[in-house]
Structure formats: C-alpha cells, structure tokens
Write a structure and sequence with these properties.
Layout (H helix, E strand, L loop, with lengths): L4 E5 L3 E7 L2 E7 L1 H12 L2 E9 L11 E8 L3 E8 L2 E8 L8 H4 L4 E4 L16 E4 L11 E2 L13 E7 H7 L3 H7 L3 E5 L4 E6 L2 E6 L10 H14 L4 H18 L5 E2 L2
Parallel strand pairs: 1-4, 1-8, 2-6, 4-5, 8-9, 9-11, 11-12
Antiparallel strand pairs: 2-3, 3-15, 6-7, 7-10, 12-13, 13-14
Length: 263
C-alpha cells in the first residue's frame, strides 16, 4: 500500500463532559478524531493546530504534530449528555490558526475541520480538500450554548469531500445542489446512529448502521478522515463508503478511551 500524508487543520479542544452523574474531561477536535480516521484507513495524519498550556493530555502516537501554536488557554467546551440528548456550550474560543502554505502544499490532501471558526474559510491550494461544515456555522459566543447559523462558503475547485449531519445541513441554508455548485464532488451526510448518505454524480446511496455504540462524540470527524483517506489511496467510491460504514460502527463501539476522570 502506498503511503499518503494528510494535513489536518483544526483546533484541539478540552471537552468537559457531564454525563448523567459523572463529570470528566477529555481531548477532542479534528486533531484527535479526524486523525484517528486517517490513521485507521492507512494514512499518516499531520496536524496544524493551536493548543493551550492547559491542555494536559498525552497525544496519541499515531498523530504527527506538524505545526502547533502554543497559547495560554485552550478551546474549551462543556458537553451535557443526558438520556440521549446532547447540549454543547462554548466556554473559551481562540484566534485563527496561522497557515504556512509552503508547508501545507506538500501533502496528498487536506482536511479542514474547525470546531469554532479557528480555520480560515478560504484555504488556497491545488490539493484535494475534505471539509467538515460544523465549525463554520457555529455561533461561537463564549459562555453560551452552541447554536447553528447559515453558511457562506466560497467556491473552490479543490473541494473533493464534504461532511455535515442532517441538522447542520438544514440550519446552514445549503442543500446538495448548492454544494455541487460550490465544487464538492462527494458529499457525506450523517444521520446520527442510523448511518449516512453519500451523494455523488447527482446520485445517492444510503449506508445504514446495523451496530449502534455508545460513543457519540467525534463520529463525523472520524468518518470524514477515514473516507477521505481511502479515496486518496485509490479506493473507489462504493468500496470507500462500505468500509467507512464498518469502521464508523466500530468507532461508535470503542471510541478512543482517552478520558481522564475528575475526582
């Protein structure tokens, strides 16, 4: 198998999880979850990110930290999980990541996956781009619950793969035809625990999950990283989607197990 290196642009997060009666912190963001998808699919994830001095977690060995700006405080979320519902509050946000194009343009592809607008929306490159919508349509007001807003994405001929979930697509004001018009060629729309739909060449195929795990955070990031890597490795669309479904089911069962209990 050929070796491919994929640049991942997005902020590390500290996720303060409130799950029923338990409270704990764990690392999150595209540098964790999309990197894991890239790694599991056979690629090398190299991260461009920002990290606070209060980020005390060990970084998994599969991640290559290529360009990390160290700042005083990390991006932080409070995530409340209760009987199947999830509410997310932004506690602290950060400035945008500085992009060094001399380094960035040496990769096989780029995943653009911010959590709260910390990645510029107008990345200029000829490399294939996979983009996750979520971080571009969040309101990103500190100490408020996260709300979704309409999107304004530029046309880009380098767009290859797009990912969002049902709610994000609806709230963004985008639709499949608009995404094609922006330049995206393969569109992944996640349906929570039910699987996802893949749109391409004005056709679509549903991929339904038969296994539902308890790991809810990072699934879409993982899916995007895994699918994009398979496509860059030369797998066809159908094979990539089928393998991505199986890998996503496994991820929902086992996740990363990186949380640190709070006593």
């Amino acid at each position: 198998m050929k070796r491919i290196n994929i640049a991942i642009l997005g902020g590390y997060t500290i996720d303060e999880i409130h799950e029923n009666s338990a409270t704990y912190e764990r690392p999150g963001g595209a540098p964790i979850f999309s990197s894991y998808g890239v790694f599991k699919a056979g690629g090398v994830p190299e991260v461009f990110s920002i990290k606070g001095k209060d980020f005390v977690f060990d970084i998994p060995g599969f991640i290559v930290e290529k360009s990390i700006e160290v700042i005083e405080h990390n991006i932080r979320f409070k995530i409340v999980l209760n009987n199947g519902s999830r509410k997310i509050f932004l506690i602290r946000k950060n400035n945008q990541i500085h992009i060094d194009y001399d380094i960035l343009n040496n990769y096989n592809g780029i995943i653009i996956n911010p959590v709260c607008k910390e990645v510029p929306i107008d990345i200029k490159t000829d490399l294939p781009i996979a983009l996750d919508l979520q971080g571009f349509i969040r309101n990103c007001n500190e100490n408020e619950e996260i709300k979704l807003e309409q999107a304004s994405l530029p046309i880009n001929r380098s767009y290859m793969v797009f990912h969002a979930n049902d709610e994000e697509l609806e709230k963004s004001g985008l639709d499949i035809e608009k995404l094609y018009a922006l330049g995206f060629r393969e569109i992944l729309i996640s349906h929570g625990s039910k699987g996802f739909t893949l749109y391409y060449n004005n056709e679509h195929t549903d991929y339904e999950s038969s296994i539902v795990g308890n790991y809810e955070i990072g699934n879409g990031d993982f899916l995007l990283g895994y699918y994009f890597t398979l496509r860059l490795l030369g797998n066809n669309i159908k094979d990539s989607a089928e393998k991505s479904l199986l890998a996503s089911e496994e991820f929902s069962m086992y996740g990363l197990n990186l949380k640190i209990p709070q006593y």
